[in-house]
From TrEMBL:
The active site is at residues 11, 143. This is 4-diphosphocytidyl-2-C-methyl-D-erythritol kinase. It catalyses: 4-CDP-2-C-methyl-D-erythritol + ATP = 4-CDP-2-C-methyl-D-erythritol 2-phosphate + ADP + H(+). The keyword Cell wall biogenesis/degradation does not apply. PANTHER family: 4-DIPHOSPHOCYTIDYL-2-C-METHYL-D-ERYTHRITOL KINASE, CHLOROPLASTIC.
Length: 305
């Protein structure tokens, strides 16, 4: 069998609205996902047993030592789930080359799972299963279906029920990564704690009309003003240094700034490619980030290369 390589994008949440805590321990979400040109690559090869290896992409300062290479790896779980549905042995080697920050709020693990689903389906000549991949993806994690879809989409429920969003033009981003990660469950837990302490009456989230209009018009300045993340206060509470990073990016001219997902990566919107280059250079000189990278969006989801 010929190895299959799939490229999968990172995401930034343009809106992350978190509803009240449900009885099952989850929250209803409004997630406006936006795929950006920061990619992992997942290669599937025939093997005698399931195995996963991980390396950093050239020039990517990602903490690959924090990526599990056992049964906890989402890509390996995806391959096993697909093999079970197909009735085949999950004998595959998954080689993951990472550029998406690890535990950085940009869904790198979910992207790898999506990449593994598509790569293994093609490796095992199972094109018949391709229409069912989004359903399988949702069984693995809430962000995995979007990594398959890409572009820009609203995610409801836990984020897995997706509706594509009309988007015009290209948006230019600068991302500042941080040392170490943030646990997504810990950030949600802190969000609940802060709300309870403040006695907030938590509303059910709805997609932002201002955000939808900005995306449809391709208006970067309006988009920057409409960015929201209900998890940001909790992420900043758990990692106070994020406040300095956000403030620094705004002071340097970002037209929008927010914590990406559950953090600790921070996202800054620029007005043009030239503005993004200048912002990235200036931010990189301040010492507030482990690494500063540029990316554009939206981009397609999981793609065979």
């Amino acid at each position: 069998m010929t190895p299959v390589t799939v490229r999968v994008p990172a995401k930034v949440n343009l809106q992350l609205g978190v509803g009240p805590l449900r009885d099952d321990g989850y929250h209803d979400l409004v997630n406006v996902f936006h795929a950006v040109s920061l990619f992992d690559e997942v290669t599937a090869l025939p093997a005698d047993e399931p195995v996963v290896t991980v390396e950093a992409a050239p020039d990517a300062q990602v903490a690959i030592e924090d990526v599990p290479v056992d049964g906890d790896n989402l890509a390996l779980r995806a391959a096993r789930l697909l093999a079970e549905r197909l009735g085949v042995e999950p004998n595959v080697e998954l080689r993951i080359r990472k550029a998406i920050p690890v535990a950085g709020g940009m869904a790198g693990g979910s992207a790898d799972a999506a990449g593994a689903l598509l790569a293994c389906a093609r490796l095992w000549k199972a094109d018949r299963i391709l229409p069912a991949l989004p359903e399988l993806a949702a069984e693995i994690g809430s962000d995995v279906p979007f990594a398959l879809l890409g572009d820009t989409a609203i995610g409801l429920g836990r984020g897995e029920r997706l509706t594509p969003v009309e988007t015009s033009g290209t948006f230019h981003w600068v991302f500042a990564t941080a040392d170490g990660g943030l646990s997504t469950p810990a950030v949600y837990g802190e969000c609940d704690r802060l709300r309870e302490a403040q006695g907030e009456d938590v509303p059910w989230p709805r997609p932002s009309e201002a955000l939808m209009k900005a995306l449809a018009a391709g208006d970067a300045h309006a988009l920057g003003a409409a960015l929201t993340n209900d998890l940001q206060p909790a992420a900043v509470m758990l990692r106070p240094s994020l406040r300095r990073t956000l403030d620094t990016g705004r002071e340097l001219g970002a037209i929008g700034a927010l914590v990406s997902g559950s953090g600790p990566t921070t996202a800054f919107l620029a007005a043009s490619p030239e503005h993004a280059a200048d912002l990235a250079a200036a931010l990189g000189q301040t010492g507030v980030a482990r690494q500063v990278v540029r990316a554009d969006g939206p981009v397609p989801g999981a793609t065979v290369v």
